Amino acid sequence: MMEPLLLIGGAFVRLYLMHNDFFKNLCDGTIFSTPVSSWKRVTEGSYLMGQDISPYEGDMVHEPPLTLLLYNLLLQNFAGIVPAFFILVDLLTAHILKRTADKFVQKQERPAVRSGAAPPSSPSPVPLIVAAVYLFNPCTAVSCAALSTAGLHQLPLALVFYAAVTERWWVCLCSLSVSCYLDLYPVVLLAPLLAAVGAAGRSRLLAALLAAGCWAGLLLLSAHALGDWSFLRSTYGFILWTWDLSPNVGLFWYFFTEMFQHFESLFIATFQINAFIYAVPLTLRFRGQPVLVMFALLVLMVTFKSYPSVAEAGLYLALLPLWRPLAPHARYGFVVTCFYASVMVLAPVMWTLWIHAGSANANFFFAVTLAYNAAQIFLVTDLLFAQLKRDHVLTHGSAKEVEGKPAKLVLC
Fold first, then answer.
1. d(C-alpha 234, C-alpha 62), whole Å
2. How many Å apart are CA 250 and CA 285, to the nearest integer?
3. pLDDT tens string 162-190
4. How far apart are CA 246 and CA 40, in angstroms?
5. Cα 56-61-67 angle, rounded to 5 deg
6. How many CB atoms sit inside 10 A of residue 394's CB?
7. What is the domain partition of the chain in residue ranges?
8. By C-alpha distance, which of 208, 164, 159 is closest to 187?
């Protein structure tokens, strides 16, 4: 009964934000939409398609062709229901996350119940908390009101987590291919998924070929629909080479505004590699815990991608309650919470002071984005170390003495 109420409440919040003048002005900033997720750019692309002009000839449109065709269909035939479409996508994502949490909690409790170590418990509140965090998080709600296409990008990612928890590997890999088609960076999730597929006794090679084949099929379908391959430069090339240095909540724009041009290639490669390099080490260190590794990589991906928005933080923040058992072992929960709260308040303020009032400069806004990304790093580091401490306690007990002397676990 609670889930329908949450979904209705989330829909009403989004409708209210869409019709509120204050939040309409807030939505125009780059906090909630970026060059790759801006609805204004989508409408421009739709207009160009209507004029038989390739939307990828200029530097305006960076959506993949298939989703651009979907948006064009909506704009040309059902323009009045576009806001309802984005709300529906958010509600569907919340439902999938709730189902993911249901299955995850059941999976965690099942061994203890089967062994008789614990009696069957009453339904956990975690799934409803997950849905509520996604539906009522300002990051996702305001982004939906801004018609940011990042909301649609979260849908296949949520399905990846659901399929991974339920061990429906083929669905998981196909969903990952769709997610990579939309954004490219989710390819980092392939490492823990292949490890999990191998642990389940399936062929890693076939799994990798399936994921690559689905992605290649989407690219071929895009090229057929568009008539050429020009979209590759404007989508994946744009993401990797970071040609647009519009301010956002990421780390790229400020550094490369100040960068000498002949150093750009080196430092772009250095920055981009951070989004991918942690996949294999984390998979090897936390083997047997693919969902945890996927969560950590999701946070790192949002931190180090070239055009992030706070909408993407809404997905991993919604999944965070799944690791409630790690809370006693975490150290920086209060600090991270304060960081996030401060950023949510200060980011719109600094943006307004810089862009609209002219009484601040880029340093003010970038200081907030640094705090935001530091919070994400603290979050993922604390979570992973909490898991290591919990594993140690389960293996060696909770004694805090070594050779009769007081001791404590520290991060080395």
1. 5
2. 27
3. 999 999 999 999 999 999 999 999 999 99
4. 15
5. 95
6. 9
7. 2-114+122-406
8. 208
Helices (H), 78-137: 82-115, 126-136
| Residue 351 reports pLDDT greater than 70 | yes
Per-residue pLDDT tens over the stretch 48-97: 998 989 999 888 899 999 999 999 999 999 988 999 999 999 999 999 99
**pLDDT interval class at 32 (50, 70, 90):** confident
Q: What is the 3-state secondary structure (H, E, C) of 349-402?
A: HHHHHHHHHCCCCHHHHHHHHHHHHHHHHHHHHHHHHHHHHHHHHHHHCCCCEE
- In 3-state terms, the chain is what percent helix, strand and coil (to 5)? 75, 0, 25
CA distances from 276 to 124, 137, 194, 252 (A): 34, 27, 15, 16
Rounded to 10 degrees, what is the CA torsion of 152, 24, 10, 36? 10
The amino acid occupying position 34 is T
Q: What global pTM score does this model have? A: 0.93
